Amino acid sequence: MRSxxxxxxxxxxxxxxxxxxxxxxxxxxxxxxxxxxxxxxxAEIGELAYVRTLDVTDHxxxxxxxxELIDEMGGMDVMVxxxxxxxxxxxxxxxxxxxxxxxxxxxxxxxxxxAFDYFREKGGGQIVGMxxxxxxxxxxxxxxxxxSKHFISVYMTGFRQxxxxxxxxxxxxxxxxxxxxxEMTERAKGMFWVAPVEKAVxxxxxxxxxxxxYIYVTKRWRLLAWVVKCIPEWVWNRI
Length: 239
Ligand SMILES: NC(=O)c1ccc[n+]([C@@H]2O[C@H](COP(=O)([O-])OP(=O)(O)OC[C@H]3O[C@@H](n4cnc5c(N)ncnc54)[C@H](OP(=O)(O)O)[C@@H]3O)[C@@H](O)[C@H]2O)c1
Hints:
By secondary structure, this protein is an alpha/beta fold. The protein is built from eight helices and seven strands; from the N terminus they run βαβαβαβαβαβαβαα. It has a single domain, classed as 3-Layer(aba) Sandwich (Rossmann fold), CATH 3.40.50.720.
């Protein structure tokens, strides 16, 4: 039985990860801002679920909450940094972008630091980052979101190198997800190859358990990733 902490567990991918891991018999520590959703999920999962309401951008409180959860769960083996937001329609453009960067990049980096230090002290563990196919793209319609996922990808590579250099048994797993049906994508247009969340998370769990460095979800996105990596910079500058 492992102990897995998941940020952004109140809906979509995080919620489904919690359900699938609990079904395998693992303990799941669930984090999000919506307390009632966390309580509902705890009622559904039962005693394997441990919940805490937290805004991951509050770094000081996050440290306390992560430690509380770890103590309550008797340790942590995997930390899934999944919390993220897309475009916030109600805010003026710059406020929306700075909020997105704060959640998707800064709070991600904070979680990654926390987990890395904890696992180094403990002697091993796994950090899973919810990146995206966007980490390989450049998109003027969603520059902040795309950049936030590039950040996650580059940051995780740095931590993977660091783990290797200091010979720490820490696996750094980046999930490059394509489109998945969740609350984040429910009003999005122009999507293709959209996967149901249950199927996408089943593939994520498989890859995480195999301790992969990169997981493409669903699998066919690996093909597109290969094509995208061949696109020269001058083409991106003309799109
Ligand atoms: N759906 C896709 O097609 C897709 C594709 C690639 C990557 N992703 C990534 O997958 C991750 C999950 O997205 P999703 O599709 O499952 O969307 P979602 O259903 O909207 O879930 C987002 C989760 O993040 C949490 N969250 C947002 N801001 C937070 C904050 N400040 N503090 C704590 N938790 C916060 C939300 O919880 P609260 O609102 O309760 O705080 C929610 O549980 C995101 O990082 C997203 O970028 C999604």
